[in-house]
Amino acid sequence: MQSHTVIGGGGIRLHVDEAGNPHGRPIVFIHGFSQCRLAWSRQMVSDLSRDFRLIAMDLRGHGLSEKPPEVYGDMRLWAEDVHAVLHTLGLQQPVLCGWSYGGVVICDYLSVYGEDAIAGLHLIGAITSLESETAMAVVSPAFFALVPGFFSTDVEESLSALQAFLRLCTQGEFTPAEHYAWLGYNASVPPYVRQGLLSRVAVHHPLLPCLRKPVLITHGDADAIILRGAAEQHAAAIPQAQTSFCPHVGHAPFWEDAPRFNRELRAFIASLP
After folding, report:
1. What span, in angstroms and rounded, lies between the C-alpha atoms of 19 and 67?
2. 264 by DSSP, 3-state: which?
3. Whether the Cβ atoms of residue 96 and residue 64 lie closer than 8 Å to each other
4. How many domains does the chain have?
């Protein structure tokens, strides 16, 4: 495993991990709200590493990336972060994999830079817009109920919300070690970052029907955060999209059923031009 520091939009320092075959097709993993690159550990150390160049980035405000205040509302900054990772690491025709909020970040990038530099997209339990009743109707009420705690600076209230959030992330139970690892990197995200993410506006509905590159949509049938309707909306809007609905899996199919997830991602990449 190698680590890189990449200078993203506005000069922010982003932490990026790299593993796998340096000569393989690059896969860029973009995590979700309040998470970090470590969420992708069951991909980064899997058999995918034999054939692919695996890149997992910490979004601004998350993990080991910088966490300044008031730099989360500008779509262009998010787009520049992704572009900087691709450009700095010399990634040729990568596949962008976005989990949950990572789908918004991918669409930020596509809205500014277009599709020419990438080979395909993988949307995983993803949302792509943050602006309308239609867009937010696919987010569960249980998630919205936790928002005050996400924004709270009271440690007890914040940790309570984050632990409830983690219980929503998977259908099954984390082991104690997994629970505290996930809780740790969620808790490292300052409340002002979470507030910045959920307060911004992102209008990407017009983008989806215009996408030309191949798209794979993966969604857990038991997702308690982003409802199945999100995947169905994306599939209806993107004519060439393939869908995979994972039975008995919640919001994190790459974690809960990593063998299936990795196998389907491998097959998707094998189908690319």
Report:
1. 25
2. helix
3. no
4. 1
Rounded to 5 degrees, φ, ψ at 243 are: -125, 150
Query: How are strands ordered across the β-sheet holding 13-20?
Result: 2-7, 13-20, 52-57, 25-30, 95-99, 120-124, 215-220, 242-246
For tokens 């632990």, name the residue. Answer: 163
Determine the structural domain holding residue 220 and report its residue range.
2-270
pTM for the model stands at 0.97
Least confident of 38-52, 119-133, 185-199, 254-268: 119-133
Sequence-distant (6+) residues with CB within 8 A of 195 are 150, 151
CA nearest to 194, candidates 228, 234, 157: 157
CB-facing half-sphere around the CA of 64: CA atoms within 13 A:
11
Q: Which amino acid is at 115?
A: E
CATH of the domain at 262: 3.40.50.1820
pLDDT digits (tens, 9 = 90+) for 126-160: 999 997 676 779 999 999 999 999 999 999 999 99
- In whole angstroms, what is the distance from residue 25 CA to residue 208 CA? 24
